[in-house]
Amino acid sequence: MQIKEIFNRIAFKIRGGVVSLSPSGTPKGYVLISYFAYPFLTDKALTGHTNYWEARQMAKEFLDRGYAVDVIDTTNKSFVPKKKYAICIDTHSNLERLAPLLGDTCIKVLHTTTTHWCTQNEAAQKRSADLLARRGASLAPERQLPPSNALEVADIVLMLGNSITQQSYAYAHKQIVPISVSAVKTFASPESKDFERARNSFIWLGGAGAIHKGADLVLEAFASLPDLTLSMCGKYLYPEFEAIYKKELHETPNIKSLGYVQLEGGQFEQIRSSSAFLVFPSCAEGQAGSVVAALHAGLIPIVTKECGVDVDDFGFVLKDASVEEIKNTVQMAAALPVEELRRRATLGWKYANTHHTRKTFAARFSEFVDMLETKIK
User: Quick check: pTM over 0.90?
Assistant: First the structure.
């Protein structure tokens, strides 16, 4: 850790968990962002989760317009507003608590990065119940969100996701503005990939929450498909999950258990260049960054509609994400003509480069702030 970052962390604690950013000149107003503070404490290039860069970009947009910006973690339960904020943006946990303290003139924005907490929690609980029924093994539901009335107190919603994601928030009849998740890493077009060599190779790529993101289903499917290869890449290697899937992860020749793999590294470059498909049957997402990363990497998506990414023109959408459906779909996909695989991968890559980049996120967020400024009293 660099000396500057250490100093920033100390100052952050002294200031009560607040990062205060000032524009050049006298501020024309104040904005509160309740998201992640970490990106503002380091000068490191942010190549992990997409939301680190996105948090920085939000603050930058307001600073460039002449606003002073205070940033806190969305989990900060002790912060009490002492300024008259024109706008407050929160991602889930803080808006309900802060709303009465911000005053009626503050525009309260809920920035959703998941599906609605009720929808997500119910879906995760079902996945745990299904695991118990299939394998006789019990794992607590993953990625559970705390109950919140943030949607009810928000004036407007900035939503990562598509129409499927939006359905979970529609009941509140709030204005919902969609914005597409950005990408950490971009790649060259897959047009020149050797799809004849890659056609039988698949990837599961995901963050924390193996059952939530369907790693169990994919492992069970490929364990009985010896002619197809699966590379497991992500944060699924925790003891409870490994204990249940030891045979599939470590004793099945066609399954490679690789753990966390950096998108910027040579290991992922080798995997993506020799593979044709992503298989990602998540049960609930806002907009799955791993699917977007795979599209940029030239992989053809085999996903659930709950991933929040529109893939109908080039990918395959699983209807029930059963082990049998996954098996049938990956076998069908691997048997497609090489030129069809090339067409789908290239279309997906072009879609990602049109809709899911840092440039498009910044432009869309700028338009959103344009709209907010018309509402400031």
Answer: yes
Of 80, 78, 60, 76, the C-alpha closest to 68 is: 60
- Greater confidence (306 vs 142) lies with 306
pLDDT at residue 42, as a whole number: 77
What percentage of residues in the chain have a pLDDT greater than 70?
A: 95
Range in 106-110, 111-115, 138-142, 361-365 with the lowest mean pLDDT: 138-142
- Beta bridge mates, 231: 203, 256
368: nearest Cα among 172, 125, 160, 141: 160
- pLDDT (0 to 100) of residue 367: 98
Short-list 303, 302, 295, 308, CA closest to 120: 308
Q: Which amino acid is at 301?
A: P
Contacts of 48 (CB under 8 A, 6+ apart): 184
How far apart, in Å, are the Cα atoms of 307 and each of 77, 84, 129? 30, 38, 20
Question: CA–CA separation, 94 vs 183, rounded Å?
Answer: 26
Domains and CATH numbers, the chain: 3-116+144-182+357-373 (3.40.50), 190-355 (3.40.50.2000)
Q: Which pLDDT score is estimated for 377?
A: 76
d(CA 271, CA 204) in angstroms, rounded, equals 11
* CA distances from residue 134 to 209, 224, 243, 326 in whole angstroms, order as listed: 18, 15, 15, 15
DSSP 50: H
- CB within 8 Å of 259: residues ≥ 6 apart: 232, 233, 234, 235, 236, 237
Contact of 38 with 75, CB cutoff 8 Å: no
